[in-house]
Amino acid sequence: MEDIAGKITALAKDASDESRRSIVEALQELQIAIEWPDDTVARIWGGHFRAAVVRVGIDLKFFELQDRAESPSCLSLQSHHTRILQTLAGHRIVKETASDKFAATELSNKIASAGSAAAIKHNFDICGPNLQALPAYLKRNGYKNPNDAHDRAFHATFNTKQLCFEWMMANPEAYEQFNVYMAGRTEKQVIWIDRYPVLDDTDPDTMSPERALLVDVGGGTGHQARNFRAKYPNIPGHVINQDQPFSVDQAKKLPSSGIEHMAHDFFTPQPIKAAKYYYLRSVLHDWPDDKCTMILSHLIDAMTQDSLILIDDKVLPSKGVPWQMMQADISMMAANASMERTTAQWHRSFDAVGLELVRRVVYSPKALETVTALKQK
Ligand SMILES: C[S@@+](CC[C@H](N)C(=O)[O-])C[C@H]1O[C@@H](n2cnc3c(N)ncnc32)[C@H](O)[C@@H]1O
Q1: Beta bridge partners of 151
Q2: pLDDT digits (tens, 9 = 90+) for 214-262
Q3: What is the rounded CA–CA span in Å between residue 54 and residue 63?
């Protein structure tokens, strides 16, 4: 068995993302084929349990301590800690090396990173209760596809009429954690500027230090603006990160050389006119179609002839969507009455506001991450 496992591991290590995904999918099918069906069912309902113990492990700093520990025995354990660690070991998140001795793994070290811990906390604390409310919400609305930002599972979950980001403004701890989660998503990953041909778009005659080069609309704490300026220090023009006041205040505490931060509500007219790029990453997927139209219309009003809107969002195939993307889609449904969109759904949104496709760059095929460049018709 070890021999087979070793061979498969070696195969996956050198494989392309696509081949690696098919190896993982084949192994998932194999697991279901050979495990006891009762265990498969228990793994389905037990998803909550695994998430809960990981969440406790983060609070107790198990993963951070293990990441730094020279030996597993550096952790001083109390009996209830052992129960948590035994559960984590059962899920192969940590390794049980002896009675009451647990060692870190590559996976537990990954969980120890700020971005992963924030992702787990946000998805457990905010999305978890929201998903609990989804079945009752859908039953009540007759299983219609939610498309009204003011009528979602989220309202019942948090007993509020506020939109998700309005609620987060009133819950700063949740917002701060969400922003760390968002910023962490770009760590050690291919990002849009690794693949998008910025230099093909930026004619030196039309760029100037006075003009805005890139406005990152809903840019969170400015990680993409920072990456952009670092990669293109010599293209003249302002690089501006816009977001809600809370995120902008958080962003200003981070190194911000070469970029500017501006509080701006994207449901109001865009104050930066004639920018080369208006860039939106993971923004439109948060909103149903009518709200996307409002956001895009304000940008269109600010555009000049050579301006481009860059939508950095997943583009789903119409069939065979990987589970990670459907997970994101259901999360959008519960939180925002919105969705991850297919090519056809995106085109309908662009046509509705008079935008025309310039180019589409799939910069991360694994995650279906795509930049779509659009100009006015
Ligand atoms: C899913 S996050 C994406 C953040 C960032 N673009 C990224 O990819 O990491 C959506 C962003 O939209 C911002 N946002 C929500 N409502 C907004 C509004 N009305 N005006 C401006 N920004 C808003 C949020 O604060 C958040 O930073």
Answers
A1: none
A2: 999 999 999 999 999 999 999 999 999 999 999 999 999 998 889 999 9
A3: 9
Topology of the domain comprising 192-376 = Rossmann fold (3.40.50)
Class of CATH domain 2-112: mainly alpha
Residue ranges of the domains in the chain? 2-112, 192-376
- State how far the Cα of 318 lies from the Cα of 350, in Å rounded to an integer: 18
Strand partners, 215: 240, 278
Q: For a pocket test of ligand 1, which of 216, 244, 311 has the largest count of ligand atoms closer than 8 A to its C-beta?
A: 244
pLDDT, tens digit, for every residue of 291-333? 999 999 999 999 999 999 999 999 999 999 999 999 999 999 9
165 lines ligand 1 (CB under 6 A): yes
Inter-CA distances, 346 with 165, 207, 275, 311, 376, Å: 23, 29, 23, 10, 15
Ligand 1, pocket-test mutation among 281, 283, 296, most atoms within 8 A of CB? 283
